[in-house]
Amino acid sequence: QVQLVESGGGLVQPGGSLRLSCAASGSISRVASMGWYRQAPGKQRELVAHIRSVGWINYADSVKGRFTISRDNAKNTVYLEMNSLKPEDTAVYYCNTAPPVLIWGQGTQVTVSS
Question: Which among 20, 16, 56, 52 has a CA at the least distance from the CA of 38?
């Protein structure tokens, strides 16, 4: 079973940027779609962005124009570049396939606050 390790989170002021990474323990080159999810306190986990192996990308409306997802199959890594961060982006961020079929990693905490 492929394991996922997310990193890159932290505390950032509104308007700031962060780059998240998700390293997979196995190959993701044949995975059709990889996604970034987030879960805020008291809310359900939601898909914020996903990318297919052929390059097709989709974003949730709440992050469109601010977040950029990418994948490096050679490094078995998926990235999420987050710009113009807002307090409502505060959440634990996870990666997984889309739809999710792998065991969830621990995620990485993103806190947007002044």
Answer: 20
